[in-house]
Amino acid sequence: MAQDTLEHIAALIAQADHIVIMTGAGASKESGIPTFRDALDGLWSKYEPGELATPEAFEKNPALVTQWYDERRLSALQSKPNAGHIAMAKLQKRLESQGKKLTLITQNVDELHQRAGAKDVLELHGSLITWRGASTGEKQRNLPEDAFESYPPKHREGTPQEELLRPDVVWFGEGLPEDALQEATTQASQCNLYFSVGTSSVVWPAAGIVDLAIKAGATTVEVNPTETILSSEYDHVLRGPSGEIFPKLLELAFPD
Ligand code: BV8
After folding, report:
1. Confidence class of residue 39 from pLDDT cuts 50, 70 and 90?
2. Which residues pair with 126 in a beta bridge?
3. Rounded distance from Cα 48 to ligand 1 centre (Å)
4. Which protein residue's CA is at the shortest distance from atom 32 of ligand 1?
5. Any idea what the Cα angle at residue 137 is, between residues 131 and 139, rounded to 5°?
6. Closest Cα to residue 16, out of 230, 228, 236?
7. Strand order in 126-133's β-sheet?
């Protein structure tokens, strides 16, 4: 697939009534958050996903798993939305001011889209910033600004119903949040322009959502510096970092 021109994609944005953007870890790379599978510094280059991102891993070694997630929670809190996050949020605002729609679906758990001002973000894989009781599922967001005192952290310290706290993310083998997944599939089936941004498209069912957009006749665009296993499914590709591409697309689509 030849590299498309920014001008051509910006023209598609300006004409679209309903855009869906699906992001993965690459959209947060320029905020300094490591991706999962980038060979050099990807999180999975050091650990096997099964060692840390599964309920079994938590069962077996809750201290190790919660310490790893707490480090990622703090790194997310200390990171800032990058120019790509900000441009996507501005694009959403601009389209809504014209009575159009931009739905942001993310596999990311760092809440950077929301901190960039994006609204109604559909978090398919949960959030690092919220934790929950491992058995009651009771959510907690007023967590310490620095590291938990000990691992695994306890929910409602000192009260009789003390239970372990876990990050409110979706582990491998766990179902995605029903409402977010349902809404994501609905929006993808109704959009006329679909962007996949910064995802290697290997994790399911998120990777399959583009197929709904294709079935709905949407034009599809992949934004990623490198080819992915699904690149050939896309009508257009923009090979580059999202933090550079999206500000240019915004500028070209809405120059004023
Ligand atoms: C489920 C949260 C059933 C935790 C994550 C069908 C086929 C095959 C396998 C399966 C299938 N269905 C289910 C499975 C199993 C499994 C799966 O998909 N396995 C894969 C690995 C084969 N799926 C599941 O287990 C899912 N659950 O289906 O359960 C079920 C149903 C009902 C009831 C019970 C059970 C759950 C999957 C969710 C797992 N949780 N994360 C955490 O964060 O630790 S997954 C993890 O991978 C992250 O969420 C991440 O977002 C996601 C995808 O990774 P990417 O975001 O794509 O990141 P990656 O590093 O891979 O790629 C980054 C890309 O960015 C690269 O392409 C790079 O080139 C690019 N990039 C780099 N720099 C930039 C850039 N792009 C733009 N700009 C840049 N600057």
Report:
1. low
2. 169
3. 13
4. 175
5. 40
6. 236
7. 139-140, 126-133, 163-169, 154-155
Ligand 1 centroid to residue 14 C-alpha, Å:
30
Element (H, E) at 140: strand 139-140
User: Is residue 177 in contact with ligand 1, taking CB distance under 6 Å?
Assistant: no
Q: What is the pLDDT of residue 2?
A: 47
pLDDT recorded at residue 224 = 97
Do 202 and 194 meet the contact criterion of CB atoms below 8 Å apart?
no
Domains of the chain (ranges, CATH numbers): 2-32+81-125+176-253 (3.40.50.1220), 42-78+130-169 (3.30.1600.10)
Angle of CA points 193, 198, 201, to nearest 5° = 85
Segment 107-163, tens digit of pLDDT: 999 999 999 999 999 999 999 999 999 999 999 999 999 999 999 998 877 777 789
Confidence of residue 4 (pLDDT cuts 50, 70, 90): low
Residue 175 in contact with ligand 1 by CB distance below 6 A: yes
The answer to whether 197 and 241 have CB atoms below 8 angstroms apart is no
Alpha carbon of 206 to ligand 1 centroid (Å): 7
140, β-bridge pairs: 131
